[in-house]
Structure formats: structure tokens, C-alpha cells
Design a protein that fits this description.
The chain is mostly helical. The protein contains 11 helices and no strands. It has one domain: Orthogonal Bundle (Neurolysin, domain 3), CATH 1.10.1370.20. Helices cover about 70% and strands about 0% of the residues. The model has no long low-confidence stretch (mean pLDDT about 95). It binds zinc ion. Zinc ion binds next to α1.
Amino acid sequence: DVLTLAHELGHGLHAYLAREQGVFHQSTPLTLAETASVFGETVTFGRLLAETTDPNARLALLAESLEGQIATVFRQIAMNRFENAVHTHRREIGELSTEDFADAWEGTQRAMLGDAVEITPGYRSWWSYIPHFIGSPGYVYAYAYGQLLALAVYARYEVEGDAFVPAYLDLLRAGGSKSPEDLGRIVGVDLADPRFWDGGLAIIDTQLSAAEQAARDAGRL
Ligand SMILES: [Zn+2]
């Protein structure tokens, strides 16, 4: 659909603008690979939402976006906490039993899901279907990092408007030629500052409030 098109066009624009960087520096690490795509998607999402007045349609749009945010930000962080727990256990206590893995998985999933989802015993072994834990340990954080970074860059655009555009295009032109921290500096953001990341979370929080309002307007809450 149109959001997917906007997302992929963002990747296309990023790769096109960074073409001068050459083969080694054109593409970015995952932490910045989704910046342009999520930016384009968020601009388009805002336009779609602004043009949609029917509360049920607004709720559907917002719920789909929030489900994506949960999968990309919160779920990846919960999985990162699981990895941290099992690797720390291995270093400090020793080999883990199947039950130890299950306890770490259930505990970190419960921390994310709260009382919203009932966790059944069969779910305790579901850590084992995620290939990253074995093939690329320590990697899943990058999904959350990349998504929040992209949203936080978009939040800067919301504040600065058109004045933000030249620096944003310079960021895309830089491709993967610098570290994430240095790339962030091009658009005037400090990745070491927790408040920068709050800008990304604030966008998700705003979407949640809007979804609740749409649900009330539709008589579903
Ligand atoms: Zn993408």
C-alpha cells in the first residue's frame, strides 16, 4: 500500500543521494538503514491521518502503526533483555538449563506484556524460534535503535520544519561514511543524550493517545 511505497521510496532516495560515497560507504549499518524509509513513511502516515475523519478508519490506521512500533521497539528491547539475562547467567553462574532459558524468556516477555496478554506454559520455549539469538547475538537492539532514531529525527523535522530539510538531505548524502554519532551531528542531534531518544518515544505516545481518542469517538472504548 501507500505506506510501503513511501517506506521503500525512502530507501531509494537514501541510496541515490549517497551514491557519491562509493561502494564501501554508500549503505549504512542497520542502525541508520531505516532512517529515510521511516521518515518517508511517517510523513505519509501524518498526511493520511490528517485526511481521515472516520474514527474507525483512524483507529485502524493508528492501531496498525502502533503494532509496528511494538514489534520494532518494545519487542526487540524485551528480547535484548532476554539475551542480556542468559549471557550474564552463563558468565556469572554457568551453563543454563532448559528451565533457566524458559524463566529468562518468560520474565522478560512478562515485563513487556504486563497483564495485557496471558502467557501459557507452551510459550516458555518460544525464545528458541528466534535465529538472531544464535546466529547474531547482541543484534536485536539495532531494530529498536534504528526505529527510535528515525522517529527522533522526524521529531526534529516537526520542530524545525523546512529549515531542517538541507541538513536532512546532507545526512542521507553521507550514507554510511561516518559513525552513527557523527551522522547524527549532521542534523544537530546528540545520540548520547537520552532526551533525543525521548523524541522518538513521544511520537509513539502521541499515536497511542490519538488511537484511544479514535476508539472513544467510534464508541469502542
Ligand atoms: Zn526498510
